[in-house]
Amino acid sequence: MRKLLATSVLLATASFNASAEECGTVTIADMNWNSATLIANVDKFILQHGFDCDAELVPGDTMPTGTSMIEKGEPDIAPELWSNSMKAALDRGVKEGRLRYAGATLSDGGEEGFWVPAYLVEKDPSLATIAGIKANRQLFEHPEDPEKSAFMGCPAGWNCQITAGNLFHAMELDKAGFELIDPGSGAGLSGAIAKAYERKEPWFGYYWAPTAVLGKYKMVKVDFGSGIDEDHYRACITKEECLDPKPTMYPPSPVDTVVTESFAERAPEALAYLSSRSFGNQQMNTLLAWMEDYQADGEITMEHFLTEYESTWTQWVSPEVAKKVKQALSEL
After folding, report:
1. Where's the ABC-type glycine betaine transport system substrate-binding domain (predicted)?
2. pLDDT tens string 265-299
3. Which of 87, 94, 188, 242 has the most CB atoms in a 10 Å sphere around its CB?
4. What pLDDT score does 22 carry?
5. What is residue 21's predicted lDDT score, i.e. its pLDDT?
6. What are the domain boundaries of the chain?
7. CA torsion through residues 164, 165, 167, 171, sign
8. Residue 329: is it exposed, middle or buried by C-beta count within 10 angstroms (0-12/13-18/19+)?
């Protein structure tokens, strides 16, 4: 019996060591925006302490990281890849057996739309529709022209300037008396929302999620009454030369966790975690607002998330892994 027990212990130990060895060194792309650096730090901590991986962060950005993963097989993990920006190349990498889509990073996808403050809709529910916006256009005062109404667009040079402009014309907001205003910068756009909210003034314009702004300020996405025509959106609304734009809601942008095939094959348990790990936009908005309020970096916000959102992340891992992560967290 003693021999049998000793053999079992040796086998269990060998199995554990093999698992850690298989995971080995794992490189994780730390992208240069807040949600991505938060998720990268969460992945690093959970992989390191829950799966015994030798996890490390490396600088990343969408195009260079995706290209490097396809051509060089590194880094192992891109935790938040907005895949539409290089979908053809990523799909080719999957087809050639170099990459794998592990799962959806944002369960709602990246979200874009035209928004109004929630306090307006609470007073008049019709303002949650484009028809209601047009009917009440006098609410949205133009800062310089009293004869016009204001729609705050996307900053010049951003991709969303094209889509917001085309949809502005598709819904004939110009004919309804609106003028499309360039906020000048991302800070100008977010600042306009903050200013309106502090004064409880009307505001109508473009924004996206997940963002700290939509975590701080409750906004309502305006319904265009069109549904989503993804084909027309891709073929025309996203193009500068779109000659006949038609109304369509923004389709969600896929935001994926992408891994190298070599990592997927050698660390199936870690892959299972990455496949389960997903954030809703409202939750991420709230986290980003906390991050901004406390001027916290990705590592500090990771600790906040793992401590305060235990009911979320423990659903992504086994009880055994969760126990190890909690123990490591208690030692910080």
Report:
1. 25-307
2. 999 999 999 999 999 999 999 999 999 999 999 99
3. 242
4. 78
5. 54
6. 2-107+254-330, 111-237
7. positive
8. middle
Sole residue written with tokens 């938040």: 80
Strands (E) in 33-131, as ranges, are: 54-60, 77-82, 99-104, 111-117
pLDDT digits (tens, 9 = 90+) for 156-191: 988 899 999 999 999 999 999 999 999 999 999 999
Tokens of 280: 């809703």
Instruction: Identify the pLDDT of residue 148.
Output: 96
Find out whether the peptide bond into 64 is cis, omega within 30 degrees of 0: no
Mean of pLDDT over the chain: 93
Q: What CATH number labels 2-107+254-330?
A: 3.40.190.10
Calculate the CA dihedral of residues 89, 95, 98, 99 and round it to 10 degrees: 70
Give the fold, CATH level 3, of 111-237: D-Maltodextrin-Binding Protein; domain 2 (3.40.190)
